[in-house]
Amino acid sequence: MKTEPNYEEEYHKVVERLVRSFSLVQLRNIVKLYEIDNPGKPSKYQAAAMIVEQRWRWPSPTSIRQEKRDAEIIHESFPLNAKHAFLILGKGDLLDLSAKFGLHVSFSSNPLSLKAEGSRASLSQLGDYISDFKKRIKEHYFQLPSVGHMGSDYLQHISRVSGAFAENAGERLIRLTYKDSDDHAARSAKRLILRNAAEAEVKSNTFG
């Protein structure tokens, strides 16, 4: 029935037939008899529509249009920065996100973003997931003992090993960005970086 081109027309005919056939009191009594959810004092048309939709299981034209709209295949891009991209993708891959939301997901480096293709409803779920994920990101700053700057290659290695995104944030200052549910990643990254800094300081004092 829902797939028929004239479904909306047929729906309104059925509702109008009930409106013409019964009084307001009768329609409200039918709604009450069938224990149909209602706003309290529905109009004749509202009561008839409730019977058609909730008792006879005819979806409303509005819900049909929404279903079609949600099922449309569309494209959307979700902007990210380097920290968000690293943490969202984690140690898994894009297939995990694709499977989780039933989307085709790809990564773009210019501009940095996630590109997704799928239904409007699934894209909305992915958008909510990314928005919520960003809210649950924590940062931790700490000072290096003496070494002024850590190489970016080394910090990238620490990021991959620990699961926390490590970067230089100033002179002798390191910033760790990590998921709020993964304090262990931050502790691990900090321990590795401080150990490397201590070893570099010993070498500097020894051979300096």
Care to describe what's here?
The chain is about 55% helix and about 20% strand. The chain has 9 helices and 6 strands. The chain is elongated, with a radius of gyration of 29 Å. The mean pLDDT is about 90.
TL;DR of this structure?
By secondary structure, the chain is of the alpha+beta class. The protein has nine helices and six strands; from the N terminus they run ααααβααββαβαββα.
Helix content: 55-70%
**Termini separation (Å)?**
84 Å
* Arithmetic mean of pLDDT: 88
Spatial extent as radius of gyration: 29 Å
Instruction: Give the neighbour order of strands across the main sheet.
Output: 1-3-2
The H-and-E topology, N to C, reads as: HHHHEHHEEHEHEEH
SS element count, helices:
9
Q: Based on Cα principal axes, name the global outline.
A: elongated
Q: How much strand content do the residues show? A: 15-25%
Report on the biggest sheet.
Answer: 3 strands, antiparallel
* Total E-strand runs: 6
Low-confidence stretches: none
Instruction: Find the structural class using helix and strand composition.
Output: alpha+beta
Keywords:
208 residues, alpha+beta, 3-stranded antiparallel β-sheet, 9 helices, 6 strands
What's the structural blueprint in terms of helices and strands?
Blueprint: H1 7-21, H2 24-33, H3 44-55, H4 61-71, E1 73-79, H5 82-89, H6 94-101, E2 104-109, E3 112-119, H7 120-135, E4 137-143, H8 152-162, E5 165-170, E6 173-179, H9 183-207
Antiparallel strand pairs: 1-3, 2-3, 4-6, 5-6
Helix pairs in contact: 1-3, 2-3, 8-9
